[in-house]
């Protein structure tokens, strides 16, 4: 019985061992245990080694700029050289994974920079102008469209204004700013402190955060690269940032150089200046030149700095890194120091150039003084002989404000001096009345024709129409205006109608871009011409009240009308330290004994 069972088992084993299924089963079993063994070896025995090999597998190279060569005169006197400077940088180290954490850290950094008078830099081509308006900083319409191309993530400007309306080219700077603040982008609107309390940001602070975030986003795929947010910062700024490394993770200080021009007043037209290369300049380079330059390089913009740029430019250094799978630097492989550029020696003599400049300056000053007369509201067209044309004293007084020798924004400051405060009170009272006079003219369809207005009111009408509505805001779209139209000619050439009539006609001809007016008017797609015109007047009232250039125009006519005297202008020159204080002259100007 036992033998029979054994024979059956032997026969069964022989059959199974001889079958293909058994052979496959053995192979798969061996493979399975081999795989288990391999995984055990990789994860348990040599796990750390393999992890290091995995995360340190990408080699990256960063180029560092070379030091620009110096410029000397024929005798070896330095005209342009470099000085050590410090730059504040931010790197995405992964310490702040949430928008709120990143934004709070950047806000703390921005407030440190503002505390020390530093300026936040970046590639978001939007700024706040002196009137508090968001504007594009692009130097041309083509440059603005290139910025929008990059902002939308497009490959070409030709893809702007798509049929779906996703990528409009006529978007305003304010619209871009509001989009970046939204939670779909950088979520700046909902910023809270560590305790969860909402933080109210100024436009300047929110724009600075958006600027840094946008600039960092341009190198998201190269997180090992740091983003420069402020250059040439003070030692006090450096010290405070280095003391706050725990709260400002990813923020660093890097050494750099700045270009310094000795006695630049004498040599500026010859030496020129440097700046960051523009897209237009880069595009104009030859194929060989593009190998030496990148869009982050500092290049000569004018003068010898520009013409001798390739000579002055140093050679770039290289630093090679291994980075992990999230872009964090794990090891430095090699480093090649940047090289200095060649020095340039000129044939000019520094001392001779300075003396020549001073002689010319004295000669010109003598000519100006010989032509300066104590005359107000002079009309040069009344003089037939050009050699007899004079310089009226009100033009000289106005130059102190128009050319910003005097800081008119300080007239109303808390620490303003006596004459500054008096002038500011005169100005504010006059400004309120002038704006009302302008609005009264614009509200009156039967107002005086342009040619019959006073010179002062003509200047205000020109400023409103040509500068504010056409040039600065584009509300009056000059690309649509028919310059052969009779009504246009009656306003611009014949001067026989008033601005009320011209603007209402412009509305009827669709020359007005209502999207650039207040939101209430812009949203009323079916507003009649009267509502649109009132929207323009409302806009103008708000605009003129905060327009620094309009303020300068007001000061000009206050001086011409002697609402502000020349003695007051000269007294403020002493008060603001433009000239060292001379008590006798200052008091004489105030009491009338000195004119």
Gyration radius over CA: 35 Å
Number of helices: 24
Helix content: 40-55%
First and last CA, distance: 143 Å
Q: Report the biggest beta sheet as strand number plus sense, adding barrel if it closes.
A: 5 strands, mixed
Number of strands: 14
| Estimated structural class | alpha+beta
- Residue runs with pLDDT of under 50 for 5 or more positions: none
Arithmetic mean of pLDDT: 86
**Strand share of the residues?**
5-15%
Coarse shape:
elongated
Task: Give an account of the 3D structure.
This protein is of the alpha+beta class and 595 residues long. Helices cover 48% and strands 12% of the residues. It contains 24 helices and 14 strands. The strands form 5 sheets. Strands 2, 3, 6, 7 and 12 form a 5-stranded mixed beta sheet that branches. Strands 1-10-11 form a 3-stranded antiparallel beta sheet, with no helix packed on it. A hairpin with a 5-residue loop joins strand 2 and strand 3 (78-90). The longest helix has 26 residues, at 20-45.
Can you describe this structure in just a few lines?
With 595 residues, the chain is of the alpha+beta class. Helix content is 48%, strand content 12%. It has helices at residues 2-18, 20-45, 47-55, 99-115, 141-152, 173-181, 203-217, 235-243, 264-271, 279-283, 287-290, 303-307, 309-312, 350-371, 393-402, 418-443, 455-472, 486-492, 499-508, 519-523, 529-545, 548-560, 566-575, 583-591, and strands spanning 58-64, 71-72, 78-90, 126-128, 134-136, 227-230, 251-261, 274-276, 298-300, 317-323, 329-336, 344-345, 372-373, 391-392.
């Amino acid at each position: 019985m036992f033998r029979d069972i054994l024979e059956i088992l032997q026969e069964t084993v022989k059959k199974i061992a001889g079958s293909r299924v058994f052979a496959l089963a053995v192979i798969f079993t061996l493979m399975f245990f081999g795989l288990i063994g391999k995984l055990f070896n990789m994860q348990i025995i040599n796990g750390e080694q393999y992890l290091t090999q995995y995360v340190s597998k990408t080699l990256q190279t960063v180029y560092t700029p070379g030091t620009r060569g110096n410029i000397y005169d024929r005798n070896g006197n330095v005209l342009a050289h470099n000085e050590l400077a410090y730059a504040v940088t931010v790197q995405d180290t992964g310490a702040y994974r949430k928008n709120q954490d990143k934004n709070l850290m950047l806000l703390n950094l921005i407030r440190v920079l503002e505390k020390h008078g530093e300026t936040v830099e970046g590639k978001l081509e939007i700024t706040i102008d002196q009137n508090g308006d968001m504007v594009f900083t692009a130097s041309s319409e083509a440059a603005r469209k290139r910025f929008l191309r990059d902002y939308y993530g497009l490959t070409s400007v030709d893809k702007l204004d798509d049929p779906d309306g996703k990528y409009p080219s006529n978007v305003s700077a304010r619209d871009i700013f509001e989009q970046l603040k939204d939670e779909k982008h950088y979520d700046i609107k909902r910023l809270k402190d560590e305790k969860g309390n909402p933080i109210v940001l100024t436009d300047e602070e929110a724009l600075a955060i958006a600027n840094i975030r946008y600039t960092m986003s341009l190198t998201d795929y190269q997180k090992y690269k740091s983003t420069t947010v402020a250059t040439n910062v003070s030692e006090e700024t450096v010290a405070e940032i280095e003391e706050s490394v725990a709260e400002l993770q990813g923020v660093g200080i890097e050494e750099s150089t700045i270009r310094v021009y000795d006695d630049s007043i004498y040599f500026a037209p010859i030496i020129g200046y440097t700046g960051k290369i523009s897209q237009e300049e880069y595009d104009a380079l030859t194929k060989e030149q593009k190998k030496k330059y990148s869009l982050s390089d500092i290049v000569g913009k004018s003068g010898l700095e520009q013409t001798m740029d390739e000579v002055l430019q140093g050679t770039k250094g290289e630093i090679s890194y291994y980075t992990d799978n999230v872009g964090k630097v794990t090891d430095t492989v090699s480093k090649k120091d940047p090289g200095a550029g060649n020095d340039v020696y000129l044939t000019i003599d520094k001392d001779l150039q300075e003396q020549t400049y001073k002689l010319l300056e004295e000669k010109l000053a003598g000519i100006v003084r010989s032509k300066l007369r104590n005359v107000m509201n002079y009309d040069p067209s009344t003089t037939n002989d050009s050699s007899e044309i004079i310089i009226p004293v009100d033009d000289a007084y106005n130059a102190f404000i128009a050319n910003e020798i005097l800081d008119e924004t300080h007239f109303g400051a808390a620490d303003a001096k006596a004459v500054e405060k008096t002038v500011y009170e005169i100005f504010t009272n006059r400004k309120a009345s002038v704006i009302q006079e302008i609005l009264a003219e614009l509200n009156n369809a039967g107002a005086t024709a342009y040619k019959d207005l006073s010179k002062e009111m003509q200047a205000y009408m020109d400023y409103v129409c040509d500068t504010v509505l056409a040039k600065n805001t584009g509300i009056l779209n000059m690309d649509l205006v028919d310059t052969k139209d009779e009504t246009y000619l009656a306003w611009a050439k014949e001067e026989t109608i008033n601005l009320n009539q011209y603007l209402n006609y412009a509305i009827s001809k669709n020359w007005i871009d209502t999207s650039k007016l207040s939101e209430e008017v812009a949203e009323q797609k079916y507003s009649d011409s009267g509502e649109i015109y009132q929207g323009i007047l409302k806009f103008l009232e708000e605009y003129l009240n905060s327009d620094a250039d309009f303020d300068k125009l007001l000061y000009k006519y206050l001086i011409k009308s002697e609402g502000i005297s020349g003695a007051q202008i000269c007294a403020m020159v002493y008060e603001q330290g433009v000239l060292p204080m001379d008590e006798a002259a200052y008091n004489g100007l105030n009491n009338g004994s000195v004119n």
